[in-house]
Specification:
heterodimer; A: 292 residues; mainly alpha; 11 helices; 73% helix; 3% strand; B: 408 residues; alpha/beta; Rossmann fold; 2 domains; 14 helices; 46% helix; 19% strand
Chain lengths: 292, 408
């Protein structure tokens, strides 16, 4: 019924969608794992990343602006999160999860209004550089060039994350803190700053995801809510706090969505969620080992 | 009692009686209170703000000479795109603020909730200005609800009539899975099929509202090879969809129609990257027709608010003029008399000509423009060209058809 070109193009666009989801949820999962904070404001930070990217490309037009945005927008988000961590979060880590959930929800509303205050309610849009603009025809199916770029960036980020958590001292400490924070403190490491770093690092990923997504969407208020729901589903099916679980979760989510719209377009909405239900029925704690 | 004392009491009594008799006349000259419930946060805020600006401009003009000796004053509430919040805010405006007229909402669900639970039960006139569900003045219409927005039946009919003139046969329907999306899809398909019976619907796809990545949907639709697609999205979802249509090169082989695709709130953010050749329908464009009235309206609006008026501003401006016009015609501040006066009322359109509030179903009559997106040298964003204007008679569903839906 469906030709190879249609199946191939759905696989391809689904895979590139998964890459963005992975970058954002890896950060969410990292914060969950190390700090035990279910950060609902993660989506708002993604939104700030996208809006910052818009401002940077307005200041510096052309391809240079795009590359600068990819670099600076996540740093802007990191700065915002550093302020939030030192002023608010660092006093709250000992609270129960429900409190943290409510607190981060409140923060997401505040950040949402701050975005409206700073950038206004109008929709924004930025262009991908000429290199990634337009589409390429593969076996008769036309695919946006930008999706190729996402497919290159995604694995690069994954490798970078692996190197960071396994090969650097800071990464190892953060992983250790995720398993046993008292022990990390007992060997003389300043846990407070490890936590601050872990939080900022996780939020940096949200900003990077937002900046990468910016050229493909209409940048508007509300893009945070949509993403954060998907984000939590992904980290749940992957295994809470497990970054590689976030990768697998993103792939399941992105691909089931892409094939769902090909096979059963009227009811495509339910596909990724059905996949989530099936995974949770079979493995209630997620696919990979949860650190919780 | 001495005579002078007696006449003193009589005189005092006379003064009191006279002043009491004067009171109702004095109280007539009070201000008219309008309660606005709309979305001022989240993605729809861009339309909510535009409507509010249009209304403010009308009110400023009206208040220069006043209405029935008073002025129009208004108060706003942000319902955050939530029908339940809109309903409780409308109640609060009626009970505590004692508003004379309720106005607002971009969310069709909110409009229907306010219409049923507040306007109808409390007998307070409610004028809808952005929400487009045809149920508002159709199936669920009643004496106390009016619409100054074009509804999905009008938009769908305009799209259907416009598309019927094109050579396309195989259609796909795609959109956001909510009231507006389905309503516009049903209406467009109904009227297209009626105008051109040999069209065929080969499939439908629906995605959740707010979905950011539509590329998988677009590639899946193009695999089915339709001639044209009826897209049923609104606001930021539409900007998103058009952007991704451009990125995938979707519209090179497949014609795309959206209601309000030629709205500048949708096209402007995309700048020069919006695709050409997409068709759309809308009741107001700030650059068409270039009547002296429209030029003056756009210039004044631009000066006051820094950007040209969109269709919400146009609807809301007319709403303001309708409110003032109806009170003048009614001659007093009375809700029932206001409704009688508003039925069939005609006010000057800021685009030129007159606009009528149809008496039979309380739906405003607007002509609709059908156009194709094109880059023109005088604008730094894509605008509509090849514009064809369908008259109010062309796009309005018949009174008896609308009233039939109410009797069920």
């Amino acid at each position: 019924m469906f030709d190879i070109a249609a199946l191939g193009s759905q696989f391809f666009v689904g895979l590139s969608r998964s890459m963005i989801l992975f970058i954002v949820t890896a950060g969410l999962s990292f914060v969950l794992g190390v700090l035990r904070v279910p950060n609902i404001a993660h989506g708002s930070l993604y939104m700030i990343g996208a809006f910052s990217a818009y401002s940077i490309t307005k200041l510096v037009p052309g391809a240079t602006g795009f590359w600068l945005a990819l670099l600076i927008a996540p740093l802007v988000v990191a700065l915002v999160s550093l302020i939030a961590e030192r002023a608010l979060f660092c006093h709250l880590y000992q609270r129960e999860h429900l409190m943290l959930l409510l607190f981060t929800f409140a923060l997401s509303l505040i950040l949402g209004d701050l975005v409206k205050f700073t950038w206004g309610a109008e929709y924004k849009s930025i262009m991908a550089p000429k290199l990634f603009d337009g589409s390429v025809s593969i076996l008769g199916a036309s695919i946006p060039r930008y999706n190729f770029f996402l497919l290159i960036i995604g694995p690069l980020v994954a490798v970078g994350l692996w190197l960071f958590t396994n090969k650097t001292k800071l990464g190892k400490i953060a992983r250790a803190a995720a398993v046993d924070r008292e022990m990390v403190g007992a060997v003389g490491i300043n846990v407070s700053w490890v936590f601050a770093f872990a939080f900022v690092f996780g939020c940096f990923m949200a900003g990077l995801g937002g900046a990468l997504m910016a050229p493909t969407i209409s940048i508007s208020l509300g893009i945070d809510h949509n993403l954060i729901i998907e984000g939590f589903l992904i980290v749940t099916i992957g295994g809470l706090g497990n970054m590689w679980g976030a990768l697998i979760g993103s792939l399941i989510f992105g691909l089931s969505q892409a094939f769902g719209v090909l096979f059963w377009p009227q009811f495509a909405i339910v596909f990724p969620y059905t996949a989530v239900v099936i995974v949770l029925l079979l493995r209630p704690k997620g696919l990979l080992k949860s650190v919780w | 009692m001495s005579k002078s004392k007696f006449s003193g009491i009589v005189l005092f009594g006379l003064v009191v009686t006279l002043s009491l008799m004067m009171l109702p006349a004095l109280s007539e000259a009070r201000n008219i209170k309008v309660g606005i419930i709309d979305t001022y946060s989240g993605p729809p805020a861009v339309f909510g703000n535009d409507a509010l600006n249009g209304f403010k401009m009308a009110v400023e003009e009206i208040n220069k000479e006043g209405v029935l000796g008073g002025k129009i004053e208004f108060t706003t509430r942000d319902e955050k795109f939530k029908p339940d919040v809109a309903m409780s805010m409308a109640k609060e405006l009626v009970m505590k603020e004692n508003v004379d007229v309720l106005v607002g909402t971009i969310n069709s669900g909110a409009a229907l909730a306010v219409s049923e639970a507040v306007a109808k039960t409390e007998k307070v006139p409610f004028i809808v200005w952005i929400s487009k569900s045809e149920k508002i003045t159709g199936e669920l219409g009643h004496r106390y609800v009016f619409s100054c927005a074009e509804n999905t039946a009008m938009a769908g009919k305009a799209g259907g009539v416009g598309l019927a003139k094109k050579p396309y046969k195989k259609y796909w329907i795609a959109g956001e899975d909510y009231e507006y999306g389905h309503a516009i899809a049903d209406a467009a398909w109904r009227y297209l099929k009626a105008a051109k019976p040999d069209v065929e619907k080969i499939g439908e796809s629906w995605w959740k509202i707010g979905e950011s990545d539509l590329v998988p949907n677009l590639t899946a639709i193009s695999a089915a090879k339709p001639d044209a697609v009826i897209f049923c999205t609104g606001g930021t979802g539409m900007t998103n969809c058009i952007k991704q249509i451009n990125a995938t090169g979707f519209s090179k082989n497949i014609h795309c129609w959206f209601h309000t695709a030629i709205d500048h709130a949708v096209l402007k953010p995309l700048g020069a990257e919006a695709p050409e050749g997409i068709s759309g329908t809308i009741q107001y464009l700030f650059y068409y027709p270039q009547t002296p009235e429209n030029k003056a309206f756009v210039e004044a609006f631009q000066k006051a608010y820094g950007n040209p008026p969109g269709f919400p501003a146009f609807n809301a401006y007319i709403t303001g003029k309708m409110i003032a016009g109806a009170y003048k015609k009614a001659g007093k501040i009375d809700k029932e008399k206001f409704i009688d006066a508003l039925e069939g009322l005609k006010v000057a359109s800021p685009a030129g000509g007159m606009v009528e509030m149809r008496a039979c179903d309380h739906q405003v009559i607007y002509p609709m423009h059908f156009g194709i997106t094109k880059k023109l040298p005088q604008y730094d964003f894509v605008t509509a060209s090849d514009l064809v204007t369908l008259t109010g008679d062309d796009v309005m569903p018949k009174c008896e058809d609308v009233l039939k839906t109410r009797k069920k």
